[in-house]
Automatic annotation (TrEMBL):
InterPro entries: PhoX, TAT_signal. It comes from Arthrobacter sp. K5. PROSITE patterns: TAT. Residues 511-528 have a biased composition (Basic and acidic residues). Pfam families: PhoX (PF05787). This is PhoX family phosphatase.
Length: 696
């Protein structure tokens, strides 16, 4: 038992181990204290000052900009109405070419001022209001019990909405005239310290926590377009993906000895998905989910180069699932390869609750923040993905086969075979002009050129001394050998279907420039990078190219406090302060929207959602749309600007409190001494919320 925030808790100690951007609780439960440990990437590949780094908007990928309506509704059927292949090298879909993305956005608002990090409220612009779509514990099946905060069971949680919703999207159900849709959500991890009473037995706590992980698909309904959504309990398409859900491994690693276990001697079937952070929605209407901090769930020998490179150690885990399931201890005979079965991109079909979800080995294995797909002019599908760890890399996958409009069955195989690349960036400015403070070079911008270094091409390994299967299972080790650029934690990577440019959120890197660590480069221009930055990539030709140019869209911070910032030349005194960019999205006219994770530890303000103008005289203008409650992170933005609506996942509100002494009461905000209405509790609950005009 450990002492956490003044209470006995059946997890390992969390305090005193953080030097990253968030609280000790998040550092322990979300990423296994990654920032407090040794840097996993100790490779000696070139890292000169002039080597620098580099989305498809998941809504834009569907041809509706950020409006989020499923592209397949264009044809009125899931199997026949997909977006067209790219046009002119920009990846524009049929919907975009037919008028979507033209003209001014209908989502007009006055930016809110930055909100103090200790405010327990969801703050939205004047003229807007908000309400939850669905909350942790809400019953989603007909036989699911109502949520009981003080009487939780694993059986109940398996039938209820999971915890810590991250990536989310809303896909319109074909033929519903905009009145029915599916909500997809990741459940990245759990905050046991605020979920459970101290009296709960440790075994029960572990079982409920495990059931709160995974994925959810929930049907939504509304009276008319432009009205708020509500979820439908017992709808036939509702589904929970649990630790017991079977996933099919696809691609070259399927059947490999590297992934076989005593429970799966074929090496093709994996139970569960873990650490699901961000994701993407494909042009054929499936969802991609990134398995990120999976290492924190496993005990492993910790001595091999692979274990060290992936942060696997021979110590008890925070949640201690290894006490209940032998596969979570890779020291156990027959489970030596279990860790190799996580760290993939997952693809699920939300429209078929009987379908088998897939893990795609062709996209490589690392701490995937997510993946976002675009159809190149050539017809090949291109997926971008960042490895969210200090000094790790940016990747690109190009499918072998081409996208076929209207052939959903074929398109659902595209991520199973193709080429894999990792990015290397070179800066244009002289070395002496990169001072580590973020000062703009004399040419007026942070910019340069880059190339995609091949790891797998034509079904063959391009890495000396490594087989195809080894490259894909130990992708970090393979990438180390070819000399890519070490980055400041690539989070979301989103190509714009309006311009074809690709945007990379680099959230921060507290270790850059410290003794023994790589120093600032033009693409990562600040030492001890507290606030992060955004990289903008322009591929040479279409997205299948191996060459590109790049520039920094912004270097984040709070200009009012003297932070050195850069907003593509836009006056710094006219922007909203922003720190630690995490998830990205686009609206229907091509504006970039950024959700943040870590602003309280960066600029001392609540995390939020921000709109950024990308073109014209106001390029680089940052406007804050909302701020999340105390201790919370903003995730999974969905921008339905044509309906004047915005959706976000509010994750881990009140994370620094305890069950007995909450730090937040979001989203129900039951007053002290009041009787909660049905479904409400006086405690913090992660939730997907919708923000809409008060006149809606």
């Amino acid at each position: 038992m450990s002492e956490i925030s003044g209470r006995k808790f059946a997890l390992l100690p969390m305090l005193g181990h953080t030097k990253g951007k968030r609280s000790p609780v998040t550092c322990a439960l979300k990423c296994d204290n990654a920032c407090a440990g040794d840097v996993c990437n100790t490779s000696a590949n070139s890292y000169f000052r002039d080597i620098a780094s580099t989305t498809l908007s998941r809504r834009a990928a569907l041809g509706f900009g950020a409006a989020g309506a499923l592209a397949v509704v264009l044809g009125g059927a899931v199997t026949s109405g997909e977006t067209a292949a790219a046009d002119g090298g920009t990846g524009l879909s049929a919907a975009a070419k037919n008028g979507f993305g033209q003209g001014a956005s209908k989502l007009q608002f006055t930016a809110i001022p930055a909100v103090a990090s200790d405010v327990d409220a969801l703050t939205v612009p004047a003229g807007f209001t908000w309400q939850p779509v669905i909350r942790w514990g809400d019953p989603i099946f007909k036989d699911a019990p109502a949520f009981q905060l003080g009487n939780q069971t694993a059986a109940a949680q398996e039938r209820q909405f999971g915890y810590n919703n991250d990536y989310s999207d809303i896909l319109e159900i074909p033929g519903s005239k905009g009145r029915r849709a599916l909500l997809f959500a990741n459940h990245e991890y759990t905050n046991e310290n605020i979920m459970f009473p101290a009296s709960m037995p440790a075994g029960q706590m572990r079982a409920v926590g495990a059931a709160a992980h995974g994925l959810s698909v929930v049907e939504l309904e509304r009276k008319n377009k432009n009205k708020p959504w509500s979820y439908v309990q017992g709808a036939p398409l509702n589904r929970r993906y649990l630790n017991s859900t079977r996933y099919e491994l696809t691609g070259p690693v399927a059947g490999s000895d590297l992934v076989k276990t005593v429970a799966d001697p074929e090496g093709r079937w994996i139970n569960g998905t873990l650490g699901n952070c961000s994701g993407g929605t494909t042009p054929w209407g499936t969802i991609l989910s990134g398995e990120e901090n999976f290492n924190g769930y496993f005990v492993a020998p910790g001595t091999s180069a692979a274990d060290k490179r992936y942060g696997l150690t021979n110590k008890a885990t925070a949640r201690q699932w290894e006490l209940d399931d032998p596969r979570f201890n890779a020291n156990n005979a027959g489970y030596e390869n279990e860790t190799n079965r996580f760290g993939w991109i997952v693809e699920v079909d939300p429209f078929d609750p009987t379908s088998t979800p897939k893990k795609h080995s062709s996209l490589g294995r690392f701490k995937h923040e997510g993946a976002n797909v675009i159809v190149a002019k050539s017809g090949h599908v291109v997926a971008y993905s960042g490895d969210d760890e200090r000094f790790d890399y940016l990747y690109k996958f190009v499918s072998k086969a081409k996208y076929r409009e209207g052939d959903r069955k074929h398109n659902m195989t595209l991520l199973s075979e193709g080429d894999l690349y990792v990015a290397k960036f070179t800066g244009n400015a002289p070395t002496a002009e990169i001072d580590g403070k973020g000062t703009v070079p004399s040419d007026g911008s942070f910019d340069g050129t880059g190339e995609w270094l091949p790891l797998v091409v034509g079904g063959k390994s391009m890495v000396a001394g490594m087989s195809l299967e080894e490259v894909l299972v130990y992708t970090r080790l393979a990438a180390d050998k070819v000399g890519p650029t070490k980055m400041d934690r690539c989070e979301d990577v989103q190509p714009s279907l309006h311009t074809g440019k690709v945007y990379v959120a680099c959230t921060n890197n507290s270790d850059r420039g410290k003794p023994g660590k790589e120093g600032a480069t033009e693409v990562n221009p600040r030492n001890e990078n507290r606030d992060g930055h955004i990289v903008e990539i322009t591929e040479t030709g279409d997205q299948t190219s191996t060459k590109f140019t790049w520039n920094l869209l912004m270097v984040c911070g709070d200009p009012s406090t003297g932070d050195v910032t850069y907003f593509s030349g836009f006056p710094a005194d006219r922007v909203s302060p922003i720190s630690c960019p995490d998830n990205l999205a686009f609206d229907s006219v091509g504006n970039l929207w950024i959700s943040t994770d870590g602003a309280p530890s960066g600029i001392g303000k609540a995390d939020g959602l921000f709109k950024v103008t990308l073109d014209g005289p106001e390029r680089g203008r940052v406007e804050q749309f909302l701020a999340v409650p105390r201790d919370a992170e903003t995730c999974g933005p969905i921008i339905h600007d044509t309906e004047r609506s915005v959706f976000v996942s509010v994750q881990h509100p009140g994370e620094e409190g305890t069950f007995e002494a909450p730090n937040s009461y979001f989203p129900d905000y039951v007053a002290a001494g009041a009787t909660p209405r049905p479904g409400q509790v006086r405690a913090p609950r992660p939730a997907v919320v919708q923000v809409f005009p008060t006149d809606a």
